[in-house]
Amino acid sequence: MKFLENDSEKIQIIDGPVSVPTIIDGMVSEMSTEHPFYVMDIGDIVRKHRQWIEKMPRVVPHYAVKCNDNEVVCGTLAALGASFDCASKGEIAKILGLGVAPERIIFANPMKPASHLRYASSNGVKTMTYDSDTELHKIKQYCPDAKLVIRIRCEAEKAQCPLGKKFGCDPVEEAPRLIKIARSLGLDVIGVSFHVGSGCADFPIYYKAISYAHDLFEYAAQLGYTFNLLDIGGGFPGDTGTSIDEVSTIVNAALEQFFPDKAAVRVISEPGRYYVSSAFTLVTNVQSKRICLNARTGAIDRMMYYLNDGVYASFNCILYDHQIPRPKLIGGQTGKQYNSTIWGPTCDALDQLIETIALPELQIDDWVVFENMGAYTIPVASPFNGFELPKIYCYISKANWELLESLFPLQNECSAGQSIAERLMSSFESVVCA
Q1: Can you tell me the mean pLDDT for 264-287?
Q2: DSSP label of 411
Q3: Is 74 one of the catalytic residues?
Q4: What CA–CA distances, in Å, run from 123 to 102, 146, 159?
Q5: In terms of Cα–Cα distance, which of 135, 191, 194 is closest to 163?
Q6: Range with the lowest mean pLDDT among 199-213, 236-250, 324-338, 349-363?
Q7: Can you tell me which residues form the catalytic site (predicted)?
Q8: Structural domains of the chain in order of their starting residue, each with its CATH number
Q9: Rounded to the nearest 5°, which phi and psi values hold at 74?
């Protein structure tokens, strides 16, 4: 059985290692310059999953589907045995449709529409978060047998996308009261979750949040609860050149100090950008150009370039994810550099990718590449002004393809008591993750 069947995606299997720059060079020499496109390296996701298991073996990743709900991404992670963080009925349906067991899903939206609660309940998705008394009463009405996880607020000072203003209760002042209310309603609270902020750059905050969770575990025990789940959320870096070494060291140390009994407490996480950011490279093209002259001297004052992708499509990450795009040129352009502005293709002045950057002069049909474009780009893109969205071309080495086929579908526990992590590591050892 193929690990994924999807006619809408084009998956190319390569005998040797996958080299994205080489693939792009070949594609731009043959393709039309009218439309942008993505090159997806599936092996990059496989490598990331292996690194996660090696560095944080106790923490079970639940991929945040909202980050990039591409079916190849989700199918790859399903085959690898990752679980999933879903925020809506639609995301739950997508993941269940891949054959993932409902026990491998956490409904991690603290504010859930009633119809989504009913859908989750009827499909066996019972683990879900809350951070208010109103949500508790709603859950009591529509999903009284839920396995609840209270979401606390412990936010990093430096985060690409802070979340604390919208979600999470104060761990000292509010959380005990909300646990007590859940107890009075007869609801089953099983643990604590937090999210330090997407794109966190303040890793010691994980230690602080885990310590807060420990205090709440002890408080809940006084009420007769036996908490057994800790969700450390997301915030892990995923761009090329980044690493989870520092954060994993902090997380592992905190778990060893506050939750040393591995059998008593299951630890999960909600990584998103970690898995997909570097796996996607966007290739765009200069479709128009404007030379702005100095009215007094007649010299070139600024170059303006108009690409065939913009903030209403892939570069919505500028608006929603506070990303700073970094262009790479194809074609060996040299010579004098000019202050340049890069725009998207639409008729909206908001559609600006880079206000000022020094570049050599570009020509119509020149290619411009943007790496690390897999996070919070594709799910939010729209065909505003009638411009087509980029196609996605997926590449995988033959070794990784055979690995994923052999793993899918991956059961929660393997034969002879072998855990998912153990089976994956033994499988990884037999393949070069190109």
Answers
A1: 96
A2: P
A3: no
A4: 7, 12, 34
A5: 194
A6: 199-213
A7: 347
A8: 11-40+278-393 (2.40.37.10), 42-276 (3.20.20.10)
A9: -65, -40
State the residue for tokens 């393809």: 401
Segment 333-346 shows an average pLDDT of 92
> Does position 428 have pLDDT exceeding 90, yes or no?
no
- Encoding tokens for residue 336? 């004098």
Residue with tokens 């060893």: 256
Let me know how many helices (H) and strands (E) the chain has, helices first: 13, 19
Task: Determine how many CB atoms are found less than 10 A away from the CB of residue 139.
Answer: 22
Q: Where does residue 297 rank: exposed (0-12), middle (13-18), buried (19+ CB within 10 A)?
A: exposed
How far apart are alpha carbons 212 and 286 in whole angstroms?
A: 51
Q: Which of 11, 23, 50 is nearest to 427 (CA)?
A: 50
Alpha-carbon span 4 to 230, nearest angstrom: 31
- pLDDT at residue 417, rounded to an integer: 41
Catalytic residue (choose from 74, 200, 347, 433) = 347
The tokens for 207 are 């230690």
Residues 195, 152: Cα–Cα separation, whole Å: 8
Rounded CA-CA distance 107/129 in Å is 7
Q: Are 256 and 214 in contact (CB under 8 A)?
A: no
Which residue do the tokens 């709900």 mark? 69
